[in-house]
């Protein structure tokens, strides 16, 4: 993995950002399904991911992904 772009401030999406976005999207879809099955109708679900990339023995690794979710809907 080329970390040059990450640490030199170059524009563009890096692999860590894509993993965070995928994780947030999957969570949003699962939450929507669960709310629907419970009888609620979500009108909006907004999930963001904060990805932690840290130096480990073998190089760099994602050590944590923190999700923050906000949703609105009828009945909750």
TrEMBL record:
InterPro entries: KH_dom-like_a/b, OsmC/Ohr_fam, OsmC/Ohrsf, OsmC_Ohr_Peroxiredoxin, Peroxiredoxin_OsmC. GO terms for biological process: response to oxidative stress. It comes from the Bacteria. Keywords: Oxidoreductase, Peroxidase. Pfam families: OsmC. GO terms for molecular function: peroxidase activity. Signal peptide: none annotated. Its EC number is 1.11.1.15. This is Peroxiredoxin (Osmotically-inducible protein C). It comes from Escherichia coli. The gene is osmC_2.
């Amino acid at each position: 993995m080329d970390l040059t772009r990450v640490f030199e401030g170059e524009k563009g999406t890096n692999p860590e950002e894509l993993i965070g976005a995928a994780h947030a999207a999957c969570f949003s879809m699962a939450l929507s399904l669960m709310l629907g099955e419970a009888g609620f109708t979500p009108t909006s679900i907004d999930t963001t991911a904060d990805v932690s990339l840290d130096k480990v023995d073998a190089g760099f690794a994602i050590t944590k992904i923190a999700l923050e979710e906000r949703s609105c809907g009828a009945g909750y």
